[in-house]
């Protein structure tokens, strides 16, 4: 698989600027931004006060210009509105930014793209580079976002289609395994519940890839271990899907919609 370039029309940017942007974000999201370096991106989320996942985001340090938040395009207006509520007296400017987002991935991706604003995807090295206003590099193959989703599914990396909004705890969506939570940074919205789950080891379910023959069962299809409920199917394609799985019932004879399935635990999970 050569270097593949794909525009991400599902993503959009929020520009943060002003002298307080860093301290403003630091008290809100799951990721540490105080040590973020110019040109670096970090993966994180904004949670509900009860600790459930509202919006995923990448914080991209733009140096003196401030930062970008790389977010789901459909959630940008709601996220901006929520940030405005939290702003209070902080000296931070919050604006929509129409700079396009793209990705570069594949077996022949250079150690670092030579031209344009590129930053390594902080979740997994195999996810390649995220570009902001970056053109397709010489020799790369132009693709659509569906190819990116296929790659994520192959790697077992869940996305917004799997966790929705205000339904899932970030640890259940593997944010702790994908560099999405800094447990040493101090307070953030939803921090108490998140830290308690990690500290007590009360993680009973996670999003993991499943394999099967034929088309993917419909989202919401129940997964059974014998007669016991073991989870449900989330997003997927032919032969593979992401599922919400009970960790104590992931072994044995699993079925979904009457068909046999198997959990394929990615190496990066350490499970």
UniProtKB/TrEMBL annotation:
One Pfam family here: Beta-barrel_CAF17_C
InterPro entries according to UniProt: CAF17_C, TrmE/GcvT-like, YgfZ/GCV_T_CS, YgfZ/GcvT
Keywords for the protein's UniProt record, in alphabetical order: Transit peptide
The keyword Cytoplasm appears for this protein: no
Signal peptide as annotated in the record: none
PANTHER family membership: TRANSFERASE CAF17, MITOCHONDRIAL-RELATED (PTHR22602:SF0)
Domain CAF17 C-terminal: start-end pairs: 204-269
Superkingdom classification of source: Bacteria
Designated name of the protein: YgfZ/GcvT domain-containing protein
């Amino acid at each position: 698989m050569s270097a593949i370039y794909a525009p991400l029309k599902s993503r959009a940017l929020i520009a943060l600027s002003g002298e307080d942007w860093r301290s403003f974000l630091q008290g809100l999201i799951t990721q540490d931004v105080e040590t973020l370096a110019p040109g670096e991106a970090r993966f994180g989320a904004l949670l509900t006060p009860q600790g459930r996942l509202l919006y995923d985001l990448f914080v991209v340090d733009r140096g003196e210009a401030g930062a970008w938040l790389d977010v789901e395009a459909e959630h940008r207006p709601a996220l901006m509105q929520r940030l405005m509520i939290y702003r209070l007296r902080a000296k931070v400017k919050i604006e929509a930014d129409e700079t396009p987002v793209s990705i570069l991935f594949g077996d022949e991706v250079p150690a670092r793209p030579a031209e344009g604003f590129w930053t390594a995807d902080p979740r997994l090295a195999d996810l390649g580079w995220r570009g902001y206003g970056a053109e397709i590099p010489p020799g790369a193959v132009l693709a659509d976002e569906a190819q990116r989703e296929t790659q994520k599914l192959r790697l077992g990396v869940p996305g917004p289609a799997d966790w929705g909004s205000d339904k899932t705890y970030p640890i259940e969506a593997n944010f702790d395994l994908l560099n999405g939570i800094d447990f040493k940074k101090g307070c953030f919205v939803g921090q108490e519940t998140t830290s308690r789950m990690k500290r007590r080891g009360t993680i009973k379910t996670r999003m993991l890839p499943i394999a099967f023959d034929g088309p993917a069962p419909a989202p919401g299809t129940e997964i059974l271990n014998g007669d016991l409920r073991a989870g449900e199917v989330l997003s997927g394609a032919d032969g593979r899907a992401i599922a919400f799985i009970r960790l104590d019932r992931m072994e044995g004879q699993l079925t979904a919609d009457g068909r046999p399935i198997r959990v394929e635990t990615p190496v990066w999970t350490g499970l």
